[in-house]
Amino acid sequence: MKLKNIDLVANRIKEAIEREEQIILFGDSDMDGVSATVIAKEAISNAAFFLNKKLHISAYFPDRKKEGYGFNENVLDYIIKKYPSKALVITLDCGITNFEEIKKARKKGFEVIIIDHHQPVVDGLPEADIIVDPKQEGDDYPFKDFSNAGLSFKLAEELLGERMPSLLKESLLELTAMATIADMMPEKDENIDYIYQGLSKIENSQRPILKAFFTIFNPEEFNSKKDIIYKINSCFNVANIDSDHVSFLYYVLTETDVEAAKEYAKELLEESNRRHLEIYALFDDAKNVIDSKIGNRIIFEGSPNWSIEYLGAVASKLTLLYNKPVFIYQRYDDFSRGTVRLPKKYDAVKAMESCKQLLKTFGGHPPAAGFTVINSNLDKFKSALIAYFNKVDSE
Question: Fewest C-beta in 10 Å: which of 116, 156, 177, 180?
Fold first, then answer.
């Protein structure tokens, strides 16, 4: 059995390669989104090699600090200006809730394929040309909880089949395993296979940046290989996007020069240490605010000084500490952009669907999601969430 539409996507990509069309990969800028984009890029590049065709492919990512998550209008406008002629756009780790952006892209002449693992909203699906999402209605594939890197690996298998070189397969599985762990996907069924296969030889990886980290880290200082992966993933948790909307992590993961990769690894390790200090400082600040408001049904707080870059890690810590739904946000002049983490019994997507009219954008997974809201709606949003959770608890 195959994921719904995965064969259609592979065939359309092969057609684009044959016609030497422009292919645009648009990935979310976290570890899973960037890894999914790298996997797709390398698989498509190999397919073009086998077809003996010149490949026209580019990758872009949103700046979460300035633009928020996913396939947002700011980056879409950048792509429209850069590619006035028709191109094939493939979204990775985003797109399933971007109704207006997908509609605008297609109106401008772009063909859009969505490859996303997030939960579709109750309103249905965006009007994309092809959608791959195991959670969409009508997909009978038995396993639903892939990372988006896992979906990209499925695409790579569909594109290349038995022609996939063994070294490429090992390398793509390494990224799939790391992204599955980083995105905290359930470690069961096929995810277990990906993690086992991806980590089995990773200390001897052919990818220069991974080779560099295994040179820097002393395995004896870690309890297991998986602990080393957690450490590397924390170093990869960078949100830097350049003016051309290309992720620094994308450069790092695709770097082919070993010496350059070593310098990247040192830089990332220093940045990771700095990030941890920032996260703990923000966590303490948030905890002081929360502790001054005893008895709140949910944690719903924000500040102009709380960087969206760190809110995911802080929200996870707050959820574990208080065992409450956590909605924290960075407040800008006119709107706020936030992160959601919930205890296991709740669903973040359903919670925000219940008051979606108050939000500019939202999306994610049941335990972890994000949102953008106009500041004039903040109090209404909070009240609606409290009403939703009270109703869920009374059922």
Answer: 156
The amino acid present at 384, given as its one-letter code, is: A
pLDDT tens by residue, 91-116? 999 999 999 999 999 999 999 999 99
State the average pLDDT over residues 227-245: 89
Cα atoms found within 13 Å of the Cα of residue 367, Cβ hemisphere only: 12
- Listed as own residue / partner, the contacts of 240-248 with beta carbons closer than 8 Å and 24 or more positions apart are 241/29, 241/61, 241/62, 241/63, 241/64, 244/60, 245/60, 245/61, 245/62, 245/63, 245/75, 245/78, 246/59, 246/60, 246/61, 247/27, 247/29, 247/34, 247/61
286-331, pLDDT tens digit by residue? 999 999 987 789 999 999 999 998 999 999 999 999 999 999 999 9
Contacts of 193 (CB under 8 A, 6+ apart): none
- Rounded Cα distance, 55 and 67, in Å: 29
Q: What are the backbone dihedrals phi and psi of residue 300, each rounded to the nearest 5 degrees, phi first?
A: -140, 95
Pairing outcome for strands 335-341 and 326-331? antiparallel
C-alpha to C-alpha distance for 203 and 201, rounded to whole angstroms: 6
The single residue listed with the structure tokens 């959670």 is 135
- With 80 as the cut, is the pLDDT of residue 264 above it? yes
Q: Would you call 132 helix, strand, or coil by DSSP?
A: strand
From the CB of residue 227, how many other CB atoms can be counted at a distance below 10 Å? 13
Domains and CATH numbers, the chain: 6-198 (3.90.1640.30), 293-394 (3.10.310.30)
Which amino acid type is present at position 76? L
According to the 3-state scheme, what is the secondary structure of 215-267? HHCCHHHCCCHHHHHHHHHHHHCCCCECCCCCEHHHHHHHCCCHHHHHHHHHH
Q: Which of 334, 335, 301, 331 is nearest to 318 (CA)?
A: 301
Residue partners of 183: CB distance under 8 A and separation at least 6: 30, 31, 32, 147, 148, 149
